[in-house]
Amino acid sequence: MTATQQTFRLDRDCIATMIPGGQPFELSRGELVLVTQTLGDSVTVQTAHGYLVRLNPADSAAMGLAASPSPGAAAGDPAQPFELDNVVAALRNVFDPEIPINVVDLGLIYRCDAQRLPDGTHRIEIDMSMTAPGCGMGDILKQDAEVAARSVAGVGDVQVELVWDPPWGIERISDAAKLQLGMM
User: Fold this and answer.
1) Where does the pLDDT of residue 162 fall: very low under 50, low under 70, confident under 90, or very high at 90 and above?
2) Domain named MIP18 family-like: which ranges (predicted)?
3) ∠ at Cα 149 (55, 46), nearest 5°?
4) For residue 143, what are the contacts with CB-CB under 8 A and spacing of at least 6?
5) Crossing angle for the helix pair 138-150 and 84-91, to the nearest 10 degrees
6) How far apart are the C-alpha atoms of 126 and 110, rounded to whole Å?
7) Structural domain tally of the chain?
8) Same domain, yes or no, for 91 and 147?
9) Residue 42, domain extent
10) What is the CATH number of the domain that holds 38?
């Protein structure tokens, strides 16, 4: 894994996601980028023109910028019993692309419930928010949360909803995250 604040030359073309707008952004092979954040499967880089973009997990792993992405649909080790705490732990590997804090400690997860399904697996229902209603990264983080939850043993279905009520505020950030951000 490449450390943050290092320049890296891309060894392939890839489509990234603009931060915070969420629009696709094409990066070309040979382009120099500055790695600003490598957390979980998420890698954020700054382009030569100053744009912040998030590389998708497959491209960032293929270029050696992050660990291989979680298999997602593999649903963890089937020999392990299901525990909702493991879903929350998996969500702690989903990071905001601008703030180096996971979505749980950032206070973006409003609800995480499990319902047992007839086949013995569990349906996970997650309500999450974004730091701002106009955040274009909502669908990306929603997908990341779904992949993370599906990676847990005993999970058969995942439903992630973006919610805006109540509005997110800094009081939702965990004390540990506030300390990390220098807010305490």
Assistant:
1) very high
2) 85-161
3) 15
4) none
5) 140
6) 7
7) 2
8) yes
9) 6-62
10) 2.30.30.40
